[in-house]
Structures are given as C-alpha cells and as structure tokens.
Amino acid sequence: MNDLIEKYFPALTVKQKEQFKALSPLYEEWNAKINVISRKDQEQFYERHVLHSLGIAKLCRFEPGAQVLDIGTGGGFPGIPLAILFPKADFHLVDSIGKKILVVEEVAKALGLKNVSAEQIRAEKLNRSFDFIVSRAVTQMPKFMAWTRNRIRKGNSAGSMANGILYLKGGDLKEELAPFPKAKVYPLNKYFEEEFFETKKVVYLKA
After folding, report:
1. Calpha distance 86→174 (Å, rounded)
2. Confidence class for position 84, pLDDT limits 50, 70, 90
3. CATH code for the domain in which residue 83 is found
C-alpha cells in the first residue's frame, strides 16, 4: 500500500491496510477494461483518489450503523475508501452509468466489503433517506442540492458532525455557494501537505 494513507491514518488495522493495498491493482485491472479513472491519474492513484476521498474522514467520523449515500460515485469514490475506513457504517453508492456500478460491485466483492451496496440510478429517483450524503464534484452545488432534497434525515447521532452533506470540491467556491450561506468550507491543505490539496476543500451543509 502507498505509505501516504498510513501517513495520515496511522491507526489502520491489518485488514484495512490489506484492503487499501489491494485497491491500486484492482483499479488498474478494471481501468484496462472500463475507463473509470483518468489514465494520467493512475500514477498518483492513492493521492488523487484514495486520500482525496478520505479527506471527508478528517472532518467526520461515521458511527456504526450510519447510512451514507455516495452520489455520482463513478468507480467508487469517495465511497469505497470511506467504506474501508468505516467498516461498521453502511454505504450506498449510486451512479447513472451501469458499467461504473459494475466496477463498484466487483471491487467491493474483491475487497470483502460487506458494508457497500451499489445501484444504477439517478440520485433524484431514490426514495430513501440517509444520515449523510457524500460526493466528489459531480456538479455545481445548486443542482446537487436539488438532487438531494428530502434525502437526508435530520439527526446528530450517526457521526461526529450532525447529519448532512459532505461534498469534495475544488477551486473558488464563493459564487457557487452564495445561495447557501450556512455552508461551511474546510480546506484540505489544513490536513494534507501534498500540493494536490492546495485548492481542494470539503463543503459541509447540515441537514
């Protein structure tokens, strides 16, 4: 496993280390068949995909039994790395593209992740509610908020933060977040020293 993950998450169990280590060869294998992540990103896989996904965990710890929805998961980010880190929380990963959900299902199966389910569906078609919604820059915030309406149950016992949205975004978000004055923005360069994280952030919106 890339030492980067242990550098920032030193309390991993042996099983979690093995699962993180297995991620890169699994995604290399699937990327050869279905382009789920950028070819140029494969060399920085642990930094740009795994550690980036785990930025959410620097802000919020999901409690056992927490139900987390990952919208527009693509090949499984941020859902798969978070599911490894929080094996007692339940993650439901959705994407509108069937072949990406196939990759998610096969990766979860190969890793033995019993806490991951996957579904080919548009977020706005879901008729379930969750404690948290996570995602990684799938669209502009106003559109994302429209997708997530009535999908989050209020509460504060499912994580170390009150239930809500944890959205990985980059760049200048001032204009995009103007309609959401209660949104809190956490720069990831506060937690990770690599240059890639200079402009990366987690946007948190309480339910």
Report:
1. 31
2. very high
3. 3.40.50.150
